[in-house]
Each structure stands twice: as C-alpha cells, then as structure tokens.
C-alpha cells in the first residue's frame, strides 16, 4: 500500500458515513451533492510517477515493489513514458506520435494562419495482447542509444495492463531518464508529471548529480511535492513493507489528496448540521411563527441574491482579466525570446510559462480570499436573523470555507499550463535557430487560444463554488424550516437528528466514528 492510501481510505470512510447519515435524516439534496463530491474525489484515477536519471533503478523498483513479475526492462534504460494499469485484461498499448499539418506552409517555414509548422499529437494505439517481457523491451527500451532515441522520437507513451498488487484506480508511471532532452523527456516533464498526483524521485546516490539538481530546480516542478526514495536498485520482494523503503523527503504547498478532500467534507457536514439545528428549532415553534420567519428570511434572501448576482458578474470580469493578463504576459515573453534567443529555447519558454503560472495562481488565491470576505459580508445580516429567530449559528468557524474549497476544486481539475509546452516543443527540438524564431512568433500569436483552454476550468469552478457558498447555506436553513412545518417535533425525530448532528460534528473534526 502506498503511503497516502490510508488517508484516502479514511476519507472514503468519512464520506460514506456522511452519506449514510444525511440519507437517514432525509436530507436528500445534501446526499446527492455528497455523492457527486465523493465521485469527484474517489472516482477518478490517481497517478504516481517514478522519476530519476537513467540507471537509477526506476524500472527495477516498480518491478520488485508493485508488479508480480519483472516485465519492465531493467537494463538499457526506459526510452518512453510507461503507464502501469491494474487490469485483469493483460495487454500493451503503444501510442505513437502523429505529425500532421493542417495549414499550408509559407516560404519562411510557417503555416498560414499563424500556427506552428508542425503539430505533434498522439495517434491511435497499437495493441499487443498478453505481452511478454521481450515485447515490452522492444517498445520501451533498446540495446543502443540510437535505438532508444528513435523510440523517444516516435512513441508518445506505452500503456501496460496487468493484474498487479497496486490498488484499483492507481496508475504508476515509469519515466525516461531525466538527462537528455528529446520528445519523451519533454512530454514527461510538461504533460505526464503535471497530471500526476505524486512524484517519487529515485536518486543515483545520496549526493545529487548536476542533472538531478537541475531537474528538481525546474520551474515546472515549483510548488510540487517530491517524495524521495532510497538510492540504489537493490529492491527485493521481501522488502515490501512501507516503512522500509518509502520515505517522505519534503512537503510543500501542493494539495495532497487529504487537503483537497477536507474542505469538501467539512462543508457538507456543516450544511447537514445546520439543517438539523434549523429543523429542531423550527419544530418547537408554531406554524404561524414558522411562516413569519420564512417570510422575513425570504425578503432578506431576495436582496442577498440580487447583490450576489452583481458580485458574480464582477467575479467573471475579474477572472477574464486574469486570463487576459496570463495570455499577454506569456505572449510578450515569447515575443521577446523570438527577438534574440540568448537562452536555450526550452529554458526560455519554461521560465515564461512558470513565472506567469505562479503569478496567476497567486492572483487566484488572492481573489478567492477576497470573495470569501465578500460572502461573509453579504451573509452577515442573514446570519444575524437566523441566530435571532432560530438560535442557529450559520457561520462555520472551524475551517476557511469558500477559499479552501475553490483551491481544492482547482487542484482536483488538474489544470496544467505546461501542456502548452508539451504541444509546441516537440516540433522545435530539431529546428535551426532561424526557424525557431519564426515558430516562436507563430506560437506567440496562438497563446490566447491555448490559455483559454487551460483557464476554462477556473472560469467554471470558481463561480460554481461562489453560488454554492451563498445559496447552499440559505437553502439548507429554509428547507429545515419547511420540514418543521409538516408537523410538531416528535421524540424519535428529535433523537435521530441529535444523534446525526453529533456524528456529523465528529466527521468534520476527523474524530473516530
């Protein structure tokens, strides 16, 4: 079992208990939302990459620690990214690169329409049923450096499906050595690794080499958590417990699975607890009192929703401004690079995207905090009214709320600005400097379209969380009052709601259930 799996299983247990509790309370809207959140958190695929220099023992480690056989070649070096999937249907899929040009070329090596000269994408898979180690060796590695370089230029990735001991839903990625710059290493750094939840780094020795230090200092890895494995390839199947080999080297700002899940669980538990409190309080009041409270709340909620709509409009404007700025900054830096390439093109483009990405994410975090404050201000009169009439506290005090959920939602979406580099760099690696200049100019013109694709999840998720922040709280109280109007409080119902509320509090606090 991988180190974070226990945390994942514990969170799955808390979500299951939460769903069971709200179903027992007949809070079917919260149940439906919790199921959706559970699917988003647990239903997806987890990806873990093992990285390091050639001959550091990556393939040997995966063979001996995860697989039930030595199917990955342990000599010669891995030439292309290899994904290991847990599946009873044993097969191998080879995904080749396809080079195609959708626009006619002009005399200076550019396509008309401002596109780059050569588009490199993944083609249809070639499938080999029941592959042998020799089949894997032929498509993953090679006996000579030239053979491995040919594979790196022609094969985007290889997927191997085996019945392994790895948890279901986990993909383990074996990667090429981090030293040479070719299509395989570019795809690994800018497409494979940003899409992975964890990166495990296997050094050659306890003292890092210059290539290893350069890789770890890459702007594309800024803000990523890197777990360090013990150096060396002497793994044995008997040495399979977690404590003997897995060790966490460092933690940083990147969201772990638990950090992504925590604000979601707490928010749903808070809404359900608030519903319990509202219903229990309202059931002790007469039908006339409930109707009066509903009327007062309805008038205030209408005013809040009108203002919330205005704020949502401003939020969309703010997000558009961020997206536009991101496009302009990257475009300007690429244009500057095209005017006189003083650095290697890889370094120039990576720095441009990395700097702009860091700036944009910092702006998104600032915007999330700003709108969290606005939501508190907007709901303040409503909170006072609910506490006065029902004695219910509707302000969650144990977590950051909206800000944390926005960042968690963005992390779950696995937004990858570096996919821009993965799309454009493979077609430039073998170009002459004069051609690179022309292609950089074309790339700069195409930046807005690429940034639009990268930024789209932010424009969808941020407003959705804002809507849930405002309407979610108001709806849960109103529905609690509505349930109370159906009849006076019965002892069994009150006892049930009190028990459920206590357990919901334990879920939010991560206490033993």
UniProtKB/TrEMBL annotation:
SUPFAM superfamilies in alphabetical order: P-loop containing nucleoside triphosphate hydrolases (SSF52540)
Domain of life, per lineage: Bacteria
Pfam families per UniProt: Dynamin_N
Alphabetical list of InterPro entries matching this protein: Dynamin_N, P-loop_NTPase
Residue ranges constituting the Dynamin N-terminal domain according to the UniProt record: 48-217
Name the UniProt record assigns to this protein: Dynamin family protein
Species, as recorded: Desulfococcus multivorans DSM 2059
């Amino acid at each position: 079992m991988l180190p974070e799996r226990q945390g994942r299983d514990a969170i799955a247990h808390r979500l299951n208990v939460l769903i069971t509790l709200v179903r027992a309370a007949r809070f079917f809207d919260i149940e439906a939302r919790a199921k959706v959140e559970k699917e988003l958190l647990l239903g997806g695929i987890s990806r873990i990459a093992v990285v390091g220099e050639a001959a550091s023992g990556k393939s040997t480690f995966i063979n001996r620690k995860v697989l039930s056989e030595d199917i990955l070649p342990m000599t010669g070096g891995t030439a292309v990214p290899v994904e290991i999937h847990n599946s009873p249907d044993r097969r191998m899929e080879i995904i080749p690169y396809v080079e195609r040009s959708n626009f006619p070329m002009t005399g200076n090596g550019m396509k008309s329409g401002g596109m780059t000269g050569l588009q490199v994408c993944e083609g249809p898979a070639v499938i080999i049923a029941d592959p042998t180690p020799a089949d894997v060796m032929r498509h993953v590695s090679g006996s000579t450096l030239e053979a491995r370089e040919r594979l790196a230029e022609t094969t985007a990735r290889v997927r191997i499906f085996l019945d392994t001991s790895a948890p279901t839903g986990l993909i383990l990625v074996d990667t090429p050595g981090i030293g040479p710059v070719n299509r395989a290493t570019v795809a690994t750094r800018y497409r494979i690794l940003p899409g992975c939840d964890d990166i495990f780094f296997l050094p050659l020795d306890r003292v890092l080499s210059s290539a290893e230090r350069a890789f770890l200092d890459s702007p594309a890895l800024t803000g990523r958590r890197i777990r360090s494995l013990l150096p060396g390839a002497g793994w044995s199947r008997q040495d399979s417990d977690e404590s003997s080999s897995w060790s966490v080297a460092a933690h940083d700002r990147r969201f772990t699975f638990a950090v992504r899940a925590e604000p979601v669980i707490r928010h749903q538990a808070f809404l359900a607890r608030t519903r319990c409190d509202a219903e229990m309080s309202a059931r002790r009041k007469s039908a006339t009192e409930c109707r009066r409270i509903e009327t007062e709340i309805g008038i205030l909620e209408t005013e809040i929703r009108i203002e919330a709509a205005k704020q949502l409009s401003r939020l969309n404007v703010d997000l558009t401004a961020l997206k536009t700025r991101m496009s302009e900054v990257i475009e300007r830096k690429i244009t500057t690079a095209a005017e006189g390439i003083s650095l290697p093109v890889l370094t120039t483009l990576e720095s441009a995207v990395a700097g702009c990405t860091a700036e944009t994410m910092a702006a998104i975090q600032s915007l999330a905090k700003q709108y969290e404050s606005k939501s508190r201000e907007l709901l303040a009169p409503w909170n006072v009214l609910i506490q006065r009439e029902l004695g219910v506290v509707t302000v969650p005090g144990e977590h950051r709320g909206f800000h944390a959920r926005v960042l968690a939602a963005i992390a779950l979406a696995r937004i990858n600005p570096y996919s821009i580099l993965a799309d454009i760099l493979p077609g430039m690696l073998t170009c002459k400097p004069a051609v690179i200049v022309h292609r950089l100019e074309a790339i700069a013109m195409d930046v807005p379209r690429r940034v639009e694709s990268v930024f789209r999840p932010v424009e969808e998720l941020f407003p959705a969380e804002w809507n849930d922040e405002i309407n979610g709280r108001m709806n849960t109280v109103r529905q609690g009052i509505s349930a109370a109007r159906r009849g006076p409080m019965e002892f069994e119902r009150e006892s049930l709601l009190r028990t459920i509320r206590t357990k919901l509090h334990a879920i939010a606090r991560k206490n033993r259930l």
